[in-house]
Specification:
Layout: E1 3-5, E2 8-10, H1 12-34, H2 37-42, H3 47-54
Antiparallel strand pairs: 1-2
Helix pairs in contact: 1-3
Length: about 60
């Protein structure tokens, strides 16, 4: 079975990896939006950069 994700053929094993990566991105981006300004400064991001990254859909890298 072959699926197509963002114009790429994806095999079942690769699909499982892709789904896991999407879940990780979703969780990480949501967590990023919860950080305080001080915490963002500690990791070298501005509030605007965090909003930009946090607003991306989970399927985009």
């Amino acid at each position: 079975m072959t699926l197509f994700v963002e114009q790429q053929a994806v095999q079942p094993r690769t699909l499982r990896y892709w789904l896991h990566a999407c879940l990780q991105r979703h969780q990480t981006r949501r967590a990023l939006l919860q950080l305080s300004d001080e915490q963002l400064a500690d990791i070298g991001l501005s509030r605007e950069q965090a909003r930009h990254e946090g607003g991306k859909p989970f399927w985009r890298e």
